[in-house]
C-alpha cells in the first residue's frame, strides 16, 4: 500500500523531503541539552525515522520504541491491502459497526479535507486506483482505461456517500471502497509524536518517507532544518525550511519530471478519474502531519491556482509548489519558514 498519497504507485517515483543536518555534532556548551538518539525502520512502505533529544539514552530508546509501536498500530488498522485490517473489513462488507475510534476520527477528518478541496481529496477513490492498477499490472493492457471504464468507475467515488453514525461507518453505494493512504501515514506520525510528548520528550521529530513532524529544536536551540529534494539534482535541496512544532509533507511526481514517457502520475484526481499531471510537487506546512499530508495531495490534484486559493483560506497552513515548468510558487506565509542559512 502506498501511504504517501491517496494513490497506487504505477511508476517508479522519487519524491519527498530530504533531511538536512538533522543530527549535528554536540558542542561542549550544548552538552547539557542532551544529544540526539535516532532509530530508522522500514514501515508503511517507506523509511521511518524517530529522533529524540535526551540526556538519558535508556529513556530515549524506550520512548522511540513506543513511538514505533504507534506507527505499527496504524499500519495494522488502516492498510486496505491487509485482509485482517479493520479498513479491509469495511471495504469487504460495505459497513463497519463499533469501529475503532482512530478509524472514525480519520474518516471524519477526511470529510473536512474533501470539503476544503472541493472534492480533490476523496478517500473513496480506491475503485479508480484499482482500475488504473489493473491496466498497468502484469496481465493488463498497459494502456489507459477507456473513458467508458473511467466514467463507470467514477460512479463509485463519492465521499458524501460515506455515512458515519455514532461508531458505525457505512459505504452507501454498493461496490464503494475507501483508502486512507492519503492520511494514514500522517496520522501515524502524529500518534508517534503524541507518544513522545507523553513520555516527556520536548525536542525531536518523526519522519515517515517525507511526512515529518518536528517538536522543539536542535541541541543548539535552532529549529530543525528540512530540505525539499531538488528535482534537478539528487541529494540536493531546492529550499530548506525551519521546522519547530510544525509538520510538513510533499506530494509529487518527480519521475514525470525526469522522464517524459512516465505519463501516468501516481496521484489521480477523484473528480475526473485521470492522473494529475499539472505539477511536479506540492509541499504543505501545517500543525499536524495528517493535515500536511492530506492538503499536499489536495494541492497537487487541484493545481497551482485552485490549490493556492485553498491554502490561503486555511489557518496556519502554507505551501510551496513546483510547477511543471519548474517555477517555485509560494503561499503568502511560506517565506516565514524558509531558512537563509
UniProtKB/TrEMBL annotation:
Q: Which residues cross the membrane?
A: none
Could you state a single Gene Ontology molecular function term? Answer: transferase activity
Q: Which domain of life is it from?
A: Archaea
Q: Tell me which InterPro entries the record gives.
A: ApbE, ApbE-like_sf
Query: According to the UniProt entry, what is the EC number of this protein?
Result: 2.7.1.180
What Pfam families would the database entry show? ApbE
Catalytic activity as recorded in UniProt: L-threonyl-[protein] + FAD = FMN-L-threonyl-[protein] + AMP + H(+)
Protein's name in the database: FAD:protein FMN transferase
Q: Which cofactor does it need?
A: Mg(2+)
Species this protein is from: Methanolobus zinderi
Keyword annotations of the record: FAD, Flavoprotein, Magnesium, Metal-binding, Transferase
